[in-house]
Amino acid sequence: MVKITGARQARFLSVPPQDIIGALLFGPDRGLVKTRAAALIQTLAPDVDPAFGATVLTSDDLISDPARLMDEMSAMSLLGGTRLVRLRLDHERSGAAIAKIIKQIDADPSRVEAKLVIEAGDLSTRSAVRKAAEAARHIGALGCYPLGARARRDQIRDQLEGIGIAITPDALDLWVPLLEGDHALAAGEVEKMALYKGYGTEEGATVTPQDVRAVAAGAQGSAIDPIIQDALFGRIDSLDARYRRAVEAKTSPVAIHFALQRHILRLCEASARMDRGDSALSATRSLRPPIFGMAEDGFVNTLNRWNGRALRSALSQCQMVERQLKTTGAPAEALTERLLFGLANFAARRRAA
């Protein structure tokens, strides 16, 4: 099928060819990889049962047993319907074996019972997995690269309009340059703005330049960044004082929550690079957009304090709070406070251990 680029990607995600087995989604924008993988799964395996029909594998799962991928692809569904195998490729130590399996299932699709979605980072043209997917007839290969300014404008406008919120052209002009980088981070910023504007509950809600200045990424950074550092370092007394001052100064708890979630997401990305052998400093300096100046030392120190499993758990807690902010009507201040102090207590225990 070779690689799928440009406008063909949107069509592939919404109407994949009938004979498609799956796809490799890769690129430096891991947020866009995740978003497009979710869109493809909705069309490729819409009836998949989340408990019994989906199998999630990681790169580490295949190091000692690469044949497990073929076993999972060949296994029949216990309850009938489509099965789905998701492979999250954080490294390519088993790249040659995975490429061989891709070639095998592409040569004889009748031997597999599942659809395959592979999510990877930035793969070079020398990558065995990328070469195999791009040469396959029944597996697509989609590169996911940072959106340009025009596409980012469309992303912001479409996401807001989907929940009944408009945005003025001058607000877009101000906001788009602030959202360069990861697709998921940009989507999170739009979610934060949506919550700030009432999440579509107010008729005629419109985002203005004043709203962008109030809650957009970086607008309250000088007040929010120390709060995040206190939480992740377990400095409970300092966190309490800073959070109280921020709330009294009308800093948005929603802005604090999404800044925290964005920071943890970047820590997760750097931690994955450390799992591939990078040092904490090298992993930090490889991030895009980069982390500058004095913030770099704090970021590295946090990486050395939190392991990948703990960071993924923290991110899961952030996402749970995000759902509560949208659905329960509970005060954002209380939800954010509970999240911050939960993380701080965990960090403090790790420091004392």
The chain-level mean pLDDT equals 84
Low-pLDDT regions = none
| Cα radius of gyration in angstroms | 21 Å
Order of H and E elements = EHEHEHEHEHEHEHHEHHHHHHHH
- Describe the biggest sheet? 6 strands, parallel
What is the correct CATH architecture of the largest domain? Answer: Up-down Bundle
**How would you write the strand order of the largest sheet?**
1-6-2-5-4-3
Query: What is the number of helices?
Result: 16
Strand % is 5-15%
* Total domains: 2
CATH class assignment of the largest domain: Mainly Alpha
Secondary-structure class: alpha/beta
Essential attributes:
353 residues; alpha/beta; Rossmann fold; Zinc Finger, Delta Prime, domain 3; two-stranded parallel ribbon; 57% helix; 10% strand; globular
In terms of topology, how is this protein built?
Elements: E1 3-4, H1 7-14, E2 22-26, H2 30-44, E3 54-58, H3 68-74, E4 83-89, H4 95-107, E5 114-120, H5 128-135, E6 139-143, H6 149-161, E7 166-167, H7 169-175, H8 183-196, E8 206-207, H9 209-215, H10 221-233, H11 236-248, H12 253-275, H13 280-285, H14 294-305, H15 308-327, H16 332-352
Parallel strand pairs: 1-6, 2-5, 2-6, 3-4, 4-5, 7-8
Give an overview of the whole structure.
The mean pLDDT is 84. The strands form two sheets. Strands 1-6-2-5-4-3 form a six-stranded parallel beta sheet, sandwiched between helices. The chain has a two-stranded parallel ribbon with strand order 7-8. Helix 7 runs parallel beside helix 9, helix 8 runs antiparallel to helix 12 and helix 10 runs antiparallel to helix 11. It has 353 residues and is α/β, with parallel strands linked by helices. It has two domains: 141 residues, P-loop containing nucleotide triphosphate hydrolases (Rossmann fold, 3-Layer(aba) Sandwich), CATH 3.40.50.300; 204 residues, Zinc Finger, Delta Prime, domain 3 (Up-down Bundle), CATH 1.20.272.10. The N and C termini lie far apart (53 Å). The chain contains 16 helices and eight strands. The longest helix is centred in the C-terminal third of the chain and has 23 residues. The chain is globular and about 65 Å long.
